[in-house]
Each structure stands twice: as structure tokens, then as C-alpha cells.
Write a structure and sequence with these properties.
about 500 residues; alpha/beta; Endonuclease, Chain A; 3 domains; two-stranded parallel sheet; about 45% helix
């Protein structure tokens, strides 16, 4: 009798095990199909397939949170906006005007006509010529200029930052904004919920009581469950009265002035006057439309006619899951490919995709002076080791690599052939290219390029050149760290 009871129980346990095994393979198969369909990059897809195969349940959760390609499904669609349709019409007009002799005689525009055309097509980034640019090389100069502009504001103040800390400089900014709001100035502020994790609900309520219209970009209540944790607003934008704009790499926190445990904080930001400010305003307007519940800021008072007459041609390029193309990456790729003399890159986080890396190596092998400046120490250990994994192959191709040693260099620079330069929020890494909402000022001004190059060379004086011999003799354990970090870099 007992034997008769044991046999069905054993058969039942076998059935359960078989069902679990079958379910395991079904989950793996379905997830692999989703990954292959979802991701365009085969290296990234293979990395995720490896994760979900080894960790079927945990890996699937991680993929849904961190790995999905939201560019396909659009977190929000800029094409819904009437102003975007007007921008498309203006882009079509500019594409026709690029063959106009009046435009062609401006040498930097003629030299970069292919990149200008690319950004008109893939990002609707209008070319503006009448601009004035001031380069700000540290946090103190940036905040001095920003606060001065805010104090002089008469109608509107629009700010958008990845990081706003509740520290000394953050408190000073909020108090100044509250004062301007009390004076009748429209004040709007966007902060990213992950980057500005220290901004609590009570702080937001206080800001609103002060008259500041503040919105959080994609709030994250449960970071481990949200499906949009990986797509953050990394943009740094300030627009005052529609006349003065700021963009670059500096957020709002004391460390951008006081430095970190690594030493002084080195960064690059821009103060812009002219027609390009309207383009920064348009990006802010689009983001505000999304975070505010579709409030449209299309009144003409936000886009005043500029009186600037000096020439500094530029396009304000944005990219992110709201756009059809990885427009900033494509612009960088096109610019690197057309370089004839020099390519200078500074990026605190350097994890390029294969296209950018290959373009850089081909340029160096072709005799072009390619230099890459990286921080000697980093605030992210995983990114630090993954970044170092690219150094050997860059040195082998003849790319000059430097470690910046005078503190932490957070600048995001690309300078090519003395007539193309980019300053913005986008790092030279896959996350900036594919996942985050970014903005860059793409400038075709030899004077601006010359000033940025002089500062780049001063930074090289504060750096150590990496030689092939020294790199080959680094500790073997470091090479293991780099290889492991490189393997996981598509998932970062």
C-alpha cells in the first residue's frame, strides 16, 4: 500500500521538475526573441542574452528595467507638437538655402555642410548664424554668469538639470528663483528624479509655495520596478527671457565649485546669446510639455527676436528616446570621419560604440592627430575600468591618450580641424548616445574652436601621457578588471 502511494508521488515530482525545466526554456526563448527584436547592437544583444540565460528570472527583470530600447516605442513623441511641424518646414527651407551663395561664402558652414545637413535631417536642428558665445571653464564662472542673468530676468526663467543638490549653491539658486517669482517673473524648473535623488517631496512643495513652477522628469517611486529608470534627462539647459542661454556639463551642486576628493572640478559650459537661444528654448518647451501634462509654451514672448549681429554659426542638437535617430552620435561619427588634421576629445566617461571607436582608429592610422583626454581617477569604479579597457587598442592605432591629473575633468568636448566643436551634456559613451536625453551645442566657429583648443592644450599640460610601454607593464590584475568591465559595458 505504501509503495503504491510513493510511486504516484515520485511521478508527480518528476512532472513538476519537467514543467519547471520547460518553463525555464520558454522564458529564455521568449526573452531572447524580445532582445533580438528590440536591440540594434549585436554586442549589446549578446551581452543581455548571456545575462538572461545565466539568470533567467533576475536577468529578465534587469533587462526590462535597464535594457529595453525605448527609442523604438518613444517615451514621448515630439512630432505631436505643432511647433515641431513648423520646425520641419524651416528645416526644409534651410536645406534648400545651403546651396545659396550667401551661405556658401561662410567658410566654416561650407566646410561642414554635410554635418549641418545631417542634423537638419535627423534632428531638425536649425542652423543659426547670429550668435555670441562665452566659454566658461569652471563652476564658479558658470554660476556667476547664470545668477547675474537670473537677477536681470524680466519675463521668464527656464531651467533644466540632471542634478540639483539641496546644498549651498542649490539653496542659493532656489532662493534667487523664489525672489524673481515674487517679482512676477515666470519661473519653471525641471529636474531629473534619479540624478536629483536628494530633492524630496517636501522640497518640491516648498518651491511651489515660493512660486516656482517645478516638475520632476519621470519620477521613480520604486527604482527596481520602473521601466524607465535607464532613460534619464541628462540635459543642462538654462534660458533667461528667451535671450540668454546656458548649456554644457555643469549641474547644480557644490562640488562643481569646491571640487571633490579627487581635487578641483574642471568642466566646460557655454553662455550663449543670439538665435541659438531659441533652439535651447524649443528643447526646454518640448521637455516641459512632457513633464507638465502637456502645457504648451508656444507664445511669441518666449522666442524674442535677437539683436545679436556677431557671427558664430551653430546648431543645438538634442537626442534621446524621444527622437528617431541617435543624432548626436551620428554628428560625432560624421565629424570624426571627415577630419583632415586633428581630433581632440575630452570625456569623463569613455565607452564608445564600435562605430565611433573604429572611426577614431581609422583617423589615427590615416595620420590625423587624434588625442583623447580621460580622468586619472573616476567617481564610478565600473566605468573607470571599462574606460581603461579601450586604451590598449587606441594606443596601438596611434591615438594619443592622456590622464588628466589636476582634479576631475568632467568636460565633454569634441574639437575637429579648427572649425568644428561640440560642448554639451553628452559623454562619449553608449548611454549618452542611446539611452539618455542629451543636448549639445555643435559650433562651426574657428574662434570658438581656437579658444577651446587652447584650454584643451592647457589641460594636457596638467595630464600624463599614456605610453604603450607603460600600458603593457601595468599590473595583470588591472587587465583582468578591465576585461570584466568591458564585457559588462554594453549593459551600463
Amino acid at each position: 500500500m505504501k509503495l503504491a502511494m510513493v510511486i504516484p508521488l515520485t511521478i508527480s515530482m518528476i512532472d513538476i521538475r519537467s514543467a519547471i525545466v520547460a518553463l525555464y526554456f520558454v522564458i529564455i526563448a521568449v526573452t531572447v526573441i524580445v532582445i533580438v527584436h528590440d536591440l540594434r547592437d549585436p554586442v549589446k544583444a549578446l551581452s543581455w542574452i548571456l545575462v538572461v540565460t545565466l539568470l533567467p528570472v533576475v536577468g529578465l527583470v534587469f533587462y526590462m528595467v535597464f535594457g529595453r530600447n525605448y527609442r523604438k516605442e518613444k517615451i514621448f513623441n515630439r512630432k505631436e507638437l505643432e511647433d515641431f511641424k513648423q520646425m520641419e518646414n524651416l528645416c526644409r527651407v534651410q536645406l534648400q538655402e545651403l546651396v545659396d551663395p550667401e551661405i556658401q561664402h561662410i567658410e566654416p558652414i561650407e566646410a561642414n555642410k554635410d554635418i549641418i545637413t545631417l542634423l537638419l535631417n535627423n534632428n531638425r536642428a536649425l542652423l543659426t548664424v547670429r550668435n555670441k558665445v562665452k566659454i566658461l571653464n569652471d563652476g564658479r564662472s558658470k554660476f556667476d554668469e547664470l545668477f547675474e542673468a537670473i537677477r536681470g530676468a524680466e519675463s521668464s526663467i527656464h531651467l533644466e538639470y540632471y542634478i540639483i543638490e539641496n546644498d549651498r549653491i542649490g539653496t542659493e539658486l532656489i532662493e534667487l528663483l523664489a525672489q524673481k517669482a515674487a517679482d512676477g517673473v515666470e519661473v519653471r524648473l525641471i529636474f531629473d528624479d534619479v540624478g536629483s535623488w536628494g530633492i524630496k517631496r517636501q522640497h518640491v512643495r516648498n518651491m511651489r509655495r515660493m512660486g516656482i513652477n517645478v516638475c520632476c522628469f519621470m519620477p521613480v517611486v520604486f527604482p527596481w520596478l520602473t521601466s524607465k529608470l535607464n532613460n534619464r534627462n541628462h540635459r543642462k539647459i538654462a534660458v533667461i527671457d528667451g535671450k540668454i542661454g546656458f548649456t554644457g556639463g555643469i549641474n547644480v551642486a557644490d562640488r562643481y565649485i569646491d571640487g571633490t576628493k579627487f581635487g578641483p572640478w574642471r568642466d566646460t559650459h557655454l553662455r550663449i546669446e543670439g538665435d541659438a537661444v531659441n533652439m535651447l528654448q524649443a528643447i526646454f518647451m518640448t521637455d516641459w510639455y512632457f513633464v507638465s501634462g502637456r502645457e504648451l509654451l508656444n507664445d511669441e514672448k518666449y522666442f524674442p527676436k535677437s539683436r545679436i549681429r556677431s557671427r558664430s554659426p551653430m546648431q543645438i542638437a538634442s537626442s534621446g528616446p524621444d527622437s528617431d535617430w541617435a543624432s548626436i552620435m551620428q554628428a560625432f561619427f560624421a565629424a570624426i570621419n571627415k577630419a583632415r588634421k586633428s581630433i581632440y576629445i575630452a570625456s569623463p566617461y569613455f565607452l564608445p560604440n564600435q562605430a565611433i571607436l573604429t572611426a577614431m582608429k581609422v583617423a589615427a592610422l590615416s595620420g590625423i592627430d587624434v588625442r583623447v583626454m580621460l580622468p586619472y581617477r573616476s567617481d564610478s569604479k565600473i566605468v573607470y575600468w571599462a574606460t581603461r579597457s579601450y586604451i590598449g587598442e587606441m594606443l596601438e592605432a596611434g591615438i594619443k591618450v592622456y590622464f588628466y591629473c589636476n582634479g576631475f575633468n568632467h568636460s565633454k568636448l569634441l574639437i575637429i580641424d579648427d572649425n568644428f566643436c561640440s560642448v554639451g551634456s553628452a559623454n562619449m559613451d553608449i548611454r549618452s548616445f542611446e539611452d539618455n536625453f542629451e543636448v549639445s551645442a555643435i559650433m562651426y566657429d574657428p574662434k570658438v574652436a581656437e579658444e577651446l583648443t587652447r584650454q584643451f592644450m592647457r589641460d594636457i599640460d596638467s595630464s600624463v601621457a599614456v605610453t604603450p610601454e607603460a600600458w603593457e607593464n601595468r599590473p595583470r590584475l588591472h587587465a583582468i578588471y578591465e576585461s570584466v568591465a568591458r564585457l559588462g559595458s554594453p549593459l551600463l
